[in-house]
Amino acid sequence: MAGVPGANDVIGSSKNGISHHENSGSGHSKDVNSISSVSDTEGTEEVLEDDQQSDLRTLAELICFEEVPPKWYARLGEFSPLFKPSFSEIETECMEVFEKKKMETKKILGNFDGQISLSVEILRCESYFDPSCCGDYLCLSAHFIDENWELNNWVLHFCSISVSGPSDDSLHKYEDWGILRSLEDWGIENKISALTVKNDNCNNELVEFLKTHIQEKMELQLNSKLFCVYCCGEMISVMVQDAFDKIADIVHKVRQVYTFKTDYPMWFLKLLNLQEALKLWAQGNLSSRDVTHSRNVPSPEEWKKVEGVCKSVENIYKVTESEFFNETPLTPNVHLCRLLKLRKSLAKMSIDSDSFNRTVVEDMLKKFDKYWDDMFLLLAISAALDPRLKMRYIEFVCSEVKDWNGNSQVAVVFGAIHKLFDEYVVRFPLQYNQQFIHLNDHPKEKSDLDCYLEQPVLTPSLGFNELAWWKTASAKYPTLSQMARDFLAIPVSLATQSEAYYTVPKPADEHIVCLKPDLMNALMCTRSWV
């Protein structure tokens, strides 16, 4: 969430009323310094009323689209004494802005002829200032690539939820969350191709609940199945946390002699704190009598265990920080090669480590391999749709993973791609351009999938944009480009760089969740639609 602007940046004054400046960041024409200040001598009461109504709409648009906290309305009197709307008036105006924008958004989704991927995130607020805001919140988002080949991530539904509850009442619990009602309201039940969640027991139940309902409505999918995607960032975080859990008792002892600089719930910060403690221990600063007197401190053997785990976690951090976590979401075609790098790093650590740390790393590998097996088909299909990789890279990956029947896996991927393509041919018959290639004077009919796979792979280049490439190539591969557009929109990770290392649910915005439910939902949605 963007930082909160200062009052002077949000609310300005203009004797000539609202200033109309182009805002390139949001696509809206209202400038953040556009609230007018009208004196008693300027114009009639009717003009004054019109100006204030216009200012009210401008303020509502700032709140809805520019992430201005709604509570800033209380300071309006400092800048425009005659413009003092009540919060109720601002709330009503914001809801009108939301409803108007929702109609436009609904029309776009209704006319969209591709598949849409969903993601479900559980956010948490732990406010010390307003306990009534504390709790869990559900964020339902739609991910799709539009006709201009731009990747969109739109919030469709945001609400307060109760995660806890008896498992036998999960049906009613998930119905209360309103996901199915939201999909029906948006009219996209038959366009859902994938669902991305974080991997825990609650989400596993939710996945089964949604799969049962969504698969009844689906128009197109491999074997009529919904692709279930587990968040890659969450898998890495769980893997690291489990490693730290194995030395939890020792870490408790470390904290008896070294005070962590921060307890913020992010695993890389825990790594940095432990590494600093290890440096001090190596220098002898944490073993002198005045430091260790009457305390249960780590033994040298225990310090070595901490050191081994930290080395393993540091290697994971180096790979993930450079390969996975970006400020902008990655398309799924790049994840297979990056996960392969991570697996090779884990495999090497399992060989080079001592017996204790080898056990830790082997447990990491088990979790990683479970994720790899569950996600391989989706990631392989997405990678094959990358013109730099294609099936050649799938063959390479399968040959690199030990204890795998590589040829069998390649055949599964190849068969799945062709089956999916055949389904797209049925769905988009007008876009299916048959291509004829003459071989030995005998015409042979080939699909654009066959032609695409037969073309040489592109040489990797810095700054390559696969979406821009497919936009240009869509005329040459009309049906396959539809398939690529759907698959490249599937989010494999829900975490960007600033969120990837959390060991607790991602925090919800206190400025939003303290509002009434309808307004809370409206602001979360409209701010993502800009």
TrEMBL record:
Lineage, top-rank taxon, reads Eukaryota
Q: Where is the composition biased (Basic and acidic residues)?
A: 19-31
- What positions does the domain hAT-like transposase RNase-H fold occupy? 330-424
Region of interest called Disordered, as start-end residue ranges on this chain: 1-53
**Compositionally biased tracts (Acidic residues):** 42-53
- SUPFAM superfamilies in the record: Ribonuclease H-like
Record's compositionally biased regions (Polar residues): 32-41
Q: Name one Pfam family in it.
A: Dimer_Tnp_hAT
Q: Where is the HAT C-terminal dimerisation domain?
A: 448-530
* Entry-linked InterPro entries: hAT-like_transposase_RNase-H, HATC_C_dom, RNaseH-like_sf
Gene Ontology molecular function terms on file: DNA binding; protein dimerization activity
Any idea what this protein is called? BED zinc finger
Q: Which organism is it from?
A: Prunus dulcis (Almond)
